[in-house]
Structure formats: C-alpha cells, structure tokens
Amino acid sequence: GPGHSHWSYEDREHWGVDYLDCGGNVQSPINIDTAKTIFSPQLRPIQLSGYSLPANEKLSLKNNGHTVLLELPESLAITGGYAQQYRAVQLHLHWGSSSGPGSEHTVDGHRFAAEIHVVHYNTKYDTFKEAMVHPDGLAVLGAFLEVGPRENPYYQEILEHLHKIQKEGEEVLVSGFNIAGLLPTNLKLYFHYNGSLTTPPCYQTVKWTVFNQTMLLSHEQMSMLVTSLRNDDNKPLQNNYRMVQGMHGRRVLASFQ
Ligand SMILES: NS(=O)(=O)c1c(F)c(F)c(SCCc2ccc(C(=O)O)cc2)c(F)c1NC1CCCCCCC1
Ligand SMILES: [Zn+2]
C-alpha cells in the first residue's frame, strides 16, 4: 500500500507525530450532532453509475492488516450530488468486536455496529494519487451497518470470502456483483461535510457523504465480520475505527430535515 511506516489503532494518539495532517483541524471521523446540522435543500440525491458489475469481472479482496479492502474499477462513478465527477478506487469496512460497536462516525453520540466506506477520486485529476492531496480530491460515501432480521445477500458476496484472507496480506478474487447493493436504497437522505482520511496520512481532502439509512446484516454476518480477520501481529483485527475528531468550526449539512 501507500508507503507509510507501521501504525496501529492502539497508538492512534501518536499518529500526529509521524503524519502532520493527522493533527489538523479538518479531520475525520466526527460525531454528527443532528441538532447542529444545517438543512440544505440544494443537496441533490447521490447518483451512482456503473456500480452493477458482471459476474465475470473479478475484483481483488484483500486483508491489508487494517481492514478488508475491495478494489473497484474506475468504471464506477458518482454522477450526481457532487459538483464534479468522482470515480471509485476501493471500498473497505470498519467494525468493532463481539463486545462493542465499531463505526467511525457517530450520530448524537451513538456508535453503530460497523461502517462501510466507498472511496472515490475527482476525475479532474489524472490519478488517484494526484487527487488525494487536493482539498476537492476525494469523495467517500459512508453508510452504517447494524444487525437486522435477515441475511444481506450483497454483503454476503464479501463476507463469504473472509475465511480465505484471515492473515494480513492475503487476498482473493471475488466475482462482480451490484456494488450499489452495499449502499442504502435511498440516496437522497445524507449528511455532508469536509474532512479527511481516517487513517494515516490523514489527508484533509475528503468530501464526506454519510447516509441516513442504515444497512442491515444478519447476526451471523456481523459475527463473521468481527471474528474472521487477523492483523499484522496475527491478533484479531477488531475495533479498527478512529476516535471522533473536533469540528473546529465546521458545520455538517443535511439533505433532509
Ligand atoms: N477511512 S479511510 O478511507 O481513510 C481508510 C482507512 F481508514 C483505512 F484504515 C485504510 S487501510 C490502511 C491504509 C492502507 C494500508 C495498506 C494498503 C494496501 O496494502 O493496499 C492500502 C491502504 C484505508 F485504505 C482507507 N482508505 C484509503 C486511505 C489510505 C491511503 C490511500 C488509499 C485509498 C483510501
Ligand atoms: Zn474508512
């Protein structure tokens, strides 16, 4: 992955020593205080294109020691809701453990069981690496995951492979499917704010969208997510979320009242 020295969620308080941006004022994740959000009717529904991939398209699913990461082709694009076009790079998850939740963003202090991030870059830049150092360079679509009454077939497309990539560095090819199924059906209701990558190098170059509608997985699926993977110390890969960061005067916009 991108060259950076060893870091872990245990020493998250020291990231700012090696990575200056991690100590900045435009950091993510944040607590979304719904009493302080600004209703912004000009925020249009998010529109996705190219998200439905044929089964003969093979995608790399990797345990990188910090999360499970699904590489995405640039044919997936955000074509509505942002001022410019963004194309997909990868998606990954954040989760807790069997004894507690692990979303990165919180809403009114509530931490959800887990959270998906679909990372995109602004196509006005030639490459993702170029884009990720510019303030309008990245767009991440986030959604919360909770336990619900039945199995989620879209998440099963990822979770059913986790037992093959238990160790850090292991990867497997998975068949294409409709990636949009990993995100809420209602793409009109969301929070929007300027923030950062939630991992070193913490670049403050992300326009965040956090959907209001939560994704539901079965209890068995959530358990699969929180127990299958190991980190680079061969310990359980759990609680891979950063603590919420200060707003420093930032406001969160809401596309709904
Ligand atoms: N929430 S987030 O979007 O900030 C985020 C995290 F919180 C993450 F924790 C991660 S994983 C840690 C970074 C990393 C490590 C190894 C590899 C590899 O071996 O391929 C790749 C990445 C992770 F990959 C991402 N997304 C990445 C940010 C890391 C640098 C650029 C890669 C694309 C976006
Ligand atoms: Zn993330």
Detail the topology: elements first, then pairings.
Blueprint: H1 15-18, E1 31-32, E2 38-39, E3 47-49, E4 58-63, E5 68-71, E6 77-80, E7 86-95, E8 106-107, E9 110-111, E10 114-122, H2 128-131, E11 138-147, H3 153-159, E12 171-175, E13 190-195, E14 206-211, E15 215-217, H4 219-227, E16 253-254
Parallel strand pairs: 1-8, 2-16, 11-14, 11-15
Antiparallel strand pairs: 3-6, 4-5, 4-12, 5-7, 6-7, 7-10, 8-9, 10-11, 13-14, 13-16
The protein binds ligand ETK and zinc ion.
| Overall spatial form | globular
Q: Hey, roughly how much beta strand do the residues contain?
A: 25-35%
Oligomeric status: single chain
Number of strands: 16
Low-pLDDT segments, ≥5 res: none
The overall pLDDT, averaged over residues, is 96
| N-to-C series of helices and strands | HEEEEEEEEEEHEHEEEEHE
Counted by DSSP, the helix tally is: 4
CA-atom Rg in angstroms: 17 Å
* Helix residue percentage: under 10%
**Structural class of the helices, strands and pairings?**
mainly beta
Bound molecules: ligand ETK, zinc ion
**N- and C-termini, Cα separation:** 40 Å
Major sheet: 13 strands, mixed
Structure notes:
This protein is mainly β. The protein is built from four helices and 16 strands. The protein has helices spanning 15-18, 128-131, 153-159, 219-227; strands spanning 31-32, 38-39, 47-49, 58-63, 68-71, 77-80, 86-95, 106-107, 110-111, 114-122, 138-147, 171-175, 190-195, 206-211, 215-217, 253-254. Strands 2, 3, 4, 5, 6, 7, 10, 11, 12, 13, 14, 15 and 16 form a 13-stranded mixed β-sheet that branches. Strands 1-8-9 form a three-stranded mixed β-sheet, with no helix packed on it. Strand 4 and strand 5 (68-71) form a beta hairpin. The radius of gyration is 17 Å and the shape is globular. The model has no long low-confidence stretch (mean pLDDT 96). Zinc ion binds at residues 92, 94, 117, 198.
